[in-house]
Design brief:
Layout: E1 5-11, H1 16-31, H2 43-51, H3 54-61, E2 65-70, H4 82-102, E3 107-109, H5 122-133, E4 140-142, H6 162-171, E5 175-177, H7 189-207, H8 210-213, E6 219-221, H9 232-241, H10 247-250, E7 255-258, H11 264-273, E8 279-280, H12 303-308, H13 314-328, H14 330-338
Parallel strand pairs: 1-2, 2-3, 4-5, 5-6, 6-7, 7-8
Helix pairs in contact: 1-4, 4-5, 5-6, 13-14
Length: 341
């Protein structure tokens, strides 16, 4: 039996009171006031938002477990200051912990980090440690452009990022490289900014030698790796021109792509170009693309359907649905083994 583990889920349906508090926090920051106390949200309110949305779809589509994190587009690290970002991150991560506690068989937590443009990563390191050691989370989301669409942060290979990498290695947790909302009018958040950031991150990793310094560091680049699989020859050629080693040794022992690609030809290409060991099942359902594809009659983000249809072996399908997630997230593997799975 193969478990179907979705590596890419966000709490996009969080209770209204949670989002209202964020609006109040932003308004208070803008006016120079103090944010109100975080509201009381009952377990029943959380259950309702999950049972009617993510949990229902997980069951309908045949998945077993989702690696769950705060809503990516709402991280909005470019809003407010470091203190506001820290408070918002803690509120989000605390809420994810409550979801996991209410539905422990279905959800496992991944945290957002309180990144803030122009600040160091000390608070992010502390929040990662809190979420992993106190909450049992198994990874984090790392925003390579917390400025919200202007790409002014140092590349991911810069020493600026090393404190968070050191903590990730110490805790043996991966990061999904995931941007948030765009404040650049030229970059639609989910249609342009997300895909651009995925592609930019991969190129940064080619240009540097990050994994020489951190050989066990692991990244998931979501949304099928952005443009990377489609332009695989370009990146192989650029690595050669830059006098870098071949991609399979230079980056692909440490970098993984998910299947958040919302049509069959795209997933077919991903599986044809990228080695099976580097692909994790993901859907990001109730996320960026929520409608029904008129060409198929099925939801765009029902990505399990696409993986089921791939002309690959059962061994390869098991790796994409379960095996690779257990390798990339060792704490998930330990959790499942503790349950006899």
């Amino acid at each position: 039996m193969t478990l179907v583990i979705d590596c890419h889920g966000h709490y996009t349906t969080a209770p209204a009171a949670h989002n209202d508090w964020r609006d109040a926090q932003k308004a208070a920051f803008k006016s120079g006031g103090t944010a109100p106390a975080y509201p009381r949200i009952s377990d029943d309110q959380i259950r309702e938002t999950i049972e009617q949305n993510q949990l229902r779809l997980i069951r309908e589509r045949g998945a077993d477990m989702t690696i769950f994190s705060p809503r990516a587009s709402a991280m909005a690290h470019h809003v407010g200051d470091a203190a506001a970002s820290d408070a918002w991150s803690r509120a989000n991560n605390d809420l994810i912990k409550r979801v996991v506690d209410l539905f422990p068989e279905t959800f496992v937590g991944v945290c957002m980090l309180p990144q803030s443009p122009g600040t160091d990563l000390a608070t992010s390191v502390a929040e990662l440690e809190r979420c992993v050691t106190e909450f049992g989370f198994i990874g984090c989301n790392l925003n390579p452009d917390p400025g919200g669409g202007h790409f002014e942060s140092p590349p991911l290979t810069d020493h600026y990022w090393y404190p968070i990498y050191e903590k990730m290695v110490e805790l043996d947790v991966p990061a999904m490289i995931h941007v948030s909302g765009s404040c650049n009018p030229g970059l639609h958040a989910t249609g342009a900014f997300y895909i651009a950031a995925d592609t930019i991150a991969f190129m940064q990793l080619i240009e540097g030698d990050l994994f020489r310094d951190f050989p066990t560091l692991r990244f998931i680049i979501p949304h099928g790796g952005g443009a990377v699989p489609y332009h695989w020859g370009r990146y192989r050629g650029l690595a050669d021109m830059l006098k870098k080693p071949a991609l399979d040794g230079h980056v692909m022992n440490n970098v993984f792509f998910d299947t958040c690609v919302y049509h069959q030809p795209g997933v077919d290409l991903l599986a044809d170009v990228i080695e099976t060991k580097n692909i994790l099942f993901g859907s990001e359902m109730v996320g960026a693309v929520r409608g029904i594809d008129p060409q198929t009659g099925h939801y765009f983000d029902d990505t399990k359907r696409y993986v089921d249809a791939l002309p690959i072996s059962d061994v390869q399908r098991h790796a994409i649905f379960e095996g690779n997630a257990r390798t990339v997230f060792p704490r998930l593997d330990a959790l499942l083994k503790g349950r006899g799975l």
